[in-house]
Amino acid sequence: MPSEEIIVRGIVQGVGFRPFVWRLAQRLGLDGEVSNRGDAVVIVASGPPPVLDAFAAALAAEAPPLARVESIERRAAPSFAGSGFIIAASAPGTVSVGIVADIATCPACRAEIADPAARRHRYAFTNCTDCGPRFSIVEGLPYDRAATTMRGFSLCAACRAEYADPADRRFHAQPIACPECGPRLWLEAGGEVIDGDPVEAAALRLRAGKILAIKGIGGFHIACDATSEASVAELRARKHRPTKPLAVMLRDPAMVEAFCVAGDAEIAALTHPSAPILLLRLRPESALAAAVAPGQNRLGVMLPYTPLHHQLMETVGRPLVMTSANRSGEPQIFRDEAARAGLAEIVDGLLTHDRPIARRLDDSVVQFAAGRPQVMRRGRGLAPAPRDLPAGFAPAPPVLALGGALKSAICLTIGGKALLSHHLGDLDEPATQDAFEQAIADYTVLFDHRPAAIAVDTHPDYPPSRFGAALAEARGLPLIAVQHHHAHIAAVMAERGWPLEGGPVIGIALDGLGFGEDGTIWGAEILLCDYRDSRRLARLRPIPLAGGDAANREPWRVLLAHLDVALGPEAVPDALFAGLPVATLRAMIARGLNAPLASSTGRLFDAMAALLGLAPPRLSFEGEAAMALQAVAEMAGDVPPYPFGRAPVGNLMEIDPAPMWRAACADLAAGCSLDSIARRFHAGVAESFADLALSLAAAQGARAIALSGGVCQNALLLEMLVARLEPSGRSLLLPGEVPANDGGLALGQAAVAAARLGVAPRGGR
Prior knowledge:
DHBP synthase; Nucleotidyltransferase, domain 5; 4 domains; nine-stranded mixed beta sheet
């Protein structure tokens, strides 16, 4: 019989692909074998040519639901010396980027833990090839049990039989376990293990108002009763988190619909195997504690995604706050000893277990905006799934991109693919910087990555820029600096598959702050971009940030600067700034002392929130003012946009907010509702940037318009922008699976660096 070697590449490890191949071969009567290599699944199959053709076609058409077949190569092979079809041991090979993300408990395992007659009844670590931990436990490739944190748990006879049976759904499920041989769960408080069922004991304490740390897949959560004002207030006090919204876990879709507004698309997103936190509109009559999301109309909701969570939610019977277990500003805790030491003053006990976590993974966060899902934080359930780079990038050498200082993530490019890491955090804390450097070492070793260049932000003082410069020097590699907003636009271009030689696009970069090419601070720009280069065509009129970084935390400073420009200092109402050092700030601005100019959309939103009394004198978390402004604006119906000016300034077009400020102040003085003013502001920003972008696209002959930057996570603003841009007929490139905020920056840096490095432009250069 003819034989073929068939090589399948993609996400084909840890998803039950080899048993699928075995069952398919059994069905078709083929002889041969299947094995894992680091970069592929390799099949040797022997049989009649028509049957081999049917077999190859079915490999893609019938692949397991968690697999992603990207290529199938077939070539003649020597005759298979044997009969029957076997699953051979994994072989070493080139490391693949196709590690599967951690997967929520599948329906079959959920039914099993609920069945009193089942061997794994109420077992907190039940999983199979279709679900369970993956990336959080893997320590090396090929993906086999010996290369995971489960290697310390020897299989019992029953589990070994399941693991070895290709017909079983647990065949080669590397985290396979049962109560006899697997990890164990316990509740501890005050240094003592609590007797009895750990889940029942934890539920009893949560219902009584206690605060517990709960060990999940990627780290610990801090949990309390989300319907208890006293419990939530106590959690906030202990964690020093006064107002930032807290995520909530709800038992099932029915409970979601009782507390939030959720349609079919939202429920599908919540029940997806990635099981993200999803931002949903709260029902006004919700029984949740008001302190869960003060001043907000949206709530971060997730469903149980491990057997432990399912049992806990069934037993508690009410919503639970599930917020990352960390001290303010520090990374999430994922090791028991760190939880005991670091959370002692925050929690009343730990519900934990002895399955080690290889790397911390924060929950992913998703919202729906302009009718589309948009990832806001990429973590558990989504990372580290690779992305294909667009057409033209395949010859580019490998790049390591280090992202920005906030919402940090790194990106590796390997053979035409980009691997964007999980969320690493804000690098303004030494502990987070340590975690960032550890993640670089982890990813480069795990994926055997040998970069030809290091890509960083052009800001020389960002921690990733400093680290990247030192790394490039130590390894003798080129360092490629990419302007912040060029990287934002390149990220969405790469995500949406814009070809390397697809021509320039108009990029609307609406952001907080980024180091500009002219040495000033940018954050509200319209750019003409391809992957190699970027040119600024327009900006928001800059205003001084009095006090420098203090203006990022105190919105009244930015409001004062805007109103002084728009109204003149003599016309600014004193009541807006009662008790604040206005004279000092004006003197700083007049002298140019620690008052850098910035064209920031983020600070513009902060200033409007301050005008309407929606921002505290000092923010307790990033985005606090803008989120409150959006929530109020969404209460209003359709309103006309506030006017913005537009005029050329040098070689740029400049959008002037002064007319908007004058109109908004007049409306406020006239007693107009805050929601109306807030919505007119959103509409004015959308109209001014969208209309100018369309004009510039026509003038430049650009076929596409791309939107990115942290402010594009404002769902209301994004919807208004899309509504004005879509009718133009130009391609609209919007962020989706790659965060619009700085969490996607590294992908853009990697794409720009790859384009500059190793792919010759059309016609040479």
